[in-house]
Input
Amino acid sequence: LPSSIGKTADPILFAANGVVRYTGVGETSPRGFRFAKQIGSYAYDGLMTLENAGTGPWTLTGVIDAESGAAATELVLKGDSAFPATLSAAIADFQSGVPLAVTKEGTGTWKLAGECTNTGATQVNSGPLELADGVSSVSPLTLAAGASLKVSPSATVSLGTVSVGGAAVLELGAGASLTIAEMSADDYAKLKVVARPGSSLVMNGSPVELDRGMIEVKDGEKPFEIDVSADERFYLTCDGAFVARGPNRSTVENWQY
Output
C-alpha cells in the first residue's frame, strides 16, 4: 500500500495467499485483518502476510480474526524497514484443531504486544522479533542462525519451549524478565545474551546468572583504559590482563576472562 491503510477498524480480508505491504511514512491504525473462507472464486489457503516496508514506525491496534470455517494456518510477519512494526492483536488458533503458526522474515523488527495463545510453531528466520510486556506464549519458538529475540524494557514475558538453530541473539531490555519453560543447554550455548541492567532470565525452572557486558581488546589495539581517580587507572590488555596503575594499586574483585 502506498500510504495509509485507513483509520477504520473494518478488516482487510485475506484469500489466495494475500499480502499487505505497507510503504507509508509511519502511522498507527485500528485496521483489522481477517482470515477469509472465500472471496468470490478465490478459496483461502490459510496464509496471511503483513510486510513492513515503511519509512516510519507502523503500529497496528486492530484485531486479527477469522470467518467461520476459514483455515487459518500461518501468519507471516516480514519486512526490511529500519523502523519497527508493532502488532497489538491477540494471536490465536482461530479454528478448533488447526494450529496457527507465526513466521518472522526479513531484517526489520516486528514487535508482538498482544496475547499469544496460538499452538502452532513460532519461527524467527531472520531479524529481530520483540516481545512486549505481558506476552505469554505456549507456542514452541525457534530462532534460526542470525536471528534475534528481544524482550522490551520492563516487560515480563513467559515462553514455552525454545530452540536455537545456530548462532543467535537474546536481548533483555532494562528491567525485563523472561521465563523459558524448556531450553537445552546446547541451545543456550548458541545464544549471545545481551542483558541490560535489572533484567533477569529463568530457564527450566532455575534462575540464570547473566553476564552484564563485555569489553574486548583485540591484538594490535591499545589497552582499554578506565579512570578510577585523577591518578589511578586500570588497563585491560589484549591477552586478558587487567592491570592497575597508580599509587593505591586498586584491585578488582571477581575478574574473569
